[in-house]
Amino acid sequence: MPAAADYTRGGTQKTVYSDAEVVAVRCPLCNADDCDRLSTEYQSVAIVRCRVCALIYTSPRIRAPAEVYWGEYETFLEEARLIFDGSAQHHREPNYREELDMIESVSPGRGRLLDVGCNMGVLLRDARARGWTTVGVEPSVALARIATEQFGLVVHNCFLDQVSPSEHASFDVMALSDVFEHIPDPLAFLATARRFLKPGGLLYLKSPNARWNLLKQRMAGSLRRTPEAGVWDSYERVVHYTDTTIVAMLAAGGFETMSVTSGKPVQSPVWHRYVGHYYQYPSPWFLDWRQHLGRRFFYELARMESRARPGRVGPLAPNLMVLARARG
Ligand SMILES: [Zn+2]
User: Fold this and answer.
1) Which residues surround ligand 1, an ion (CB under 5 A)?
2) pTM, to two decimals
3) How far is the CA of 185 from the centre of ligand 1 (A)?
4) Which residues make Cβ contacts (< 8 Å) with residue 300, sequence separation at least 6?
């Protein structure tokens, strides 16, 4: 059986970064340069908490974190071949269903939906099937090409601020599914995002829950184990939001938060442990039953916790799901 690290995958993440490959940055929310270190990953990357506004962010971070997942066309095509054949689901489809249900609970009229960081376009494909007029933004050449070729989607292959101003004020909904935490300058991004939304337009975003990462780190520490290198995924995640700091960031960026909840965990496939290659379709639950059931168990506990404390997302929830409106 190949070691977990030996498999071929679309991205270019590494297990060690040198000091020359990283850069220290100020707080992306309040611009302070005063923080406490919470953890170190990949040798030279660190997770810190701002002493002024409590935002948790990555510093030092790698220089171009958004490019880590860009990857090779052929590799991605192979990872998802059965999905394009129509013979398998994508492993995130249960999550995408939940996300679209949430968007439609407050924006029932359908309309124009922009998915920023749309990856292979599976969320957009599913949204289109539900009646949305869809547009994607995807800076990876390989992934934008796949979304266009395989699903016939309209995808701008660039960053959001490079999309033509002719699209300004034209979207009812903007979706950021596991994307916002990769953006090094979230305030500049939100200013751009507002230009593309219609007045009062809806911003939906999903992001990992930093309180859950803190808990995972503490559990690993109390078991006297070094936390797995992947607790914060800090080679590519540059801001680590909680239910309070996400609201503060959105407010500073001109958005009023309507709700912060949590959603189902992503059940990441583990094919690579058995066949030496990563695939995007779900692996049978019994191949990693401990992690699979563990994620499910904590998620059910988090649901109970959120019923006890409405409006708050505690440390057991895997992610944050946020609905916000652009202020007029
Ligand atoms: Zn700060």
Assistant:
1) 27, 29-30, 32, 50, 52-53, 55
2) 0.91
3) 13
4) none
For residue 323, what is the enclosing H or E element? Answer: strand 319-326
Report the separation in Å between the CA atom of 261 and the middle of ligand 1, taken as the mean of its atom positions.
23
112 CA to centre of ligand 1 in angstroms: 34
Least confident range of 25-29, 82-86, 255-259: 82-86
CATH architecture type of domain 4-11+69-209+242-326:
3-Layer(aba) Sandwich (3.40)
- What are the tens digits of pLDDT across the range 67-89? 888 888 998 998 888 889 888 88
- Positive or negative torsion for Cα 140, 144, 145, 151: positive
Pairing of strands 35-41, 45-50: antiparallel
Domain locations in the chain as residue ranges: 4-11+69-209+242-326
